[in-house]
Amino acid sequence: MTHQYDDIVIGVGGMGSATTYRLAKRGRDVLGLERYDVPHAMGSSHGISRIIRLAYYEDPSYVPLVRRAYELWEELQERQGERLLHRTGSIDAAPEDDPLFRGSLRSCEEYDIDHEVLTSREVTDRFPGYRLPDDHMALYQPDGGYLLSERAIVAHTMQAQAEGARIQARERVTDWEPEGDGVRVTTDRGEYTADNLVVASGAWAYKHIDALDGLAVPQRQVLAWLQPQSPEKFRPERFPVWNLQVEEGRFYGLPIARVPGFKFGRYTHRGEDVDPDAMNREPEPEDERLLREFAERYFPEGTGPTMRLATCMFTNSPDDHFIIDRHPEHPQVVFGAGFSGHGYKFASVIGEVLADLASEGRTDHPIDPFGLDRFDV
User: Fold this and answer.
1) What is the bridge-based pairing of β-strands 191-199 and 49-52?
2) Contact 81, 64 (CB under 8 A)
3) Are 130 and 299 in contact (CB under 8 A)?
4) Is the distance from CB of 31 to CB of 55 less than 8 angstroms?
5) Which domains does the chain have, with CATH numbers?
């Protein structure tokens, strides 16, 4: 006889592992299906670390969600007995009239978040690894930092298993279809049925939900880790995570953590939209050149030998905001996608949101701005 699950989750990465845990913690009978390993380096959550920050320049409406994410990350690391969240402070720097700086300041003022406004000189005096342009202003927020992203996926997965969830890796979902009020999911190993389906498959989401085709678009990214000439200036206690808008584009970076180099990348990198099953996963000389030239100008004491290069993917929505909703024709199917390069920090709370939608049909979290109906589909 076919086992009937309460919920099936497609994808056991950042969002899917959190969703599986949250469903299992509610006593649900859950199956998580992952086509690669747990964790893996094929999607959007690898590369050791991801930024987390309260000063949310994208839109102040994200602040309540990220505050809840902090609570859930702390709960997870306590339960797992492993430190996952590292506070270093965060810097958002740009010309004073730029949306990055203005948006960060607005979020802090609107939600009464502790912060300081610094000139570029004040940033360098306090954090000497930085060399920002003279006309830049910076917002410093002490609660920013980074998450150990792959370790957090492991933690969510292990805690989901401890709550009774079944997680199967190296099993690719080939199709799903509604079956009455539930779903039938077909993989390259078998078939499964459930009352609800949650699609949390990152860059592959549009291949599982037709309505996301053209709305959740994968894009190739490349990250660099360079060995600093002065490593002491790039350690977590002296080097806040950062977002920086300069004439070359918008860049982001993190301190030395578990690799002997500081980590950084450029939003949208070279603007390469890709099929996740056909992407060039090998960093090229042009990728390294673009990143190294940026570092030489703004972080000149961090430009020693390359320690690591890695590709990953953003999955961008048309407005760069998340897409979280029910399937327009099958309400037993929910999904989270289009996290647009700033989603991982929310994984803990997105797991809670998707679990709410699957098990309760609603959530108290403020996700109205993320509905599919804002697009003409």
Assistant:
1) unpaired
2) no
3) yes
4) no
5) 4-45+150-214+319-374 (3.50.50.60), 90-142+217-316 (3.30.9.10)
Planar angle of CA 331, 322, 96, nearest 5 degrees: 160
Q: Could you tell me whether strands 173-179 and 182-187 are parallel, antiparallel, or unpaired per DSSP bridges?
A: antiparallel
Q: Sheet holding 145-148: strands in order across?
A: 49-52, 145-148, 85-87
∠ Cα 213 214 220 (to 5°): 105
Q: Which residues of the chain have pLDDT under 50?
A: none
Number of H helices, E strands in the chain: 8, 19
Closest CA to 42 of 313, 309, 259: 313
Q: Are 185 and 173 in contact (CB under 8 A)?
A: yes
Predicted confidence (pLDDT) per residue in 67-86, tens digit:
999 999 999 999 999 999 99
pTM over 0.85: yes
Q: Is 137 helix (H, G, I), strand (E, B) or coil?
A: strand
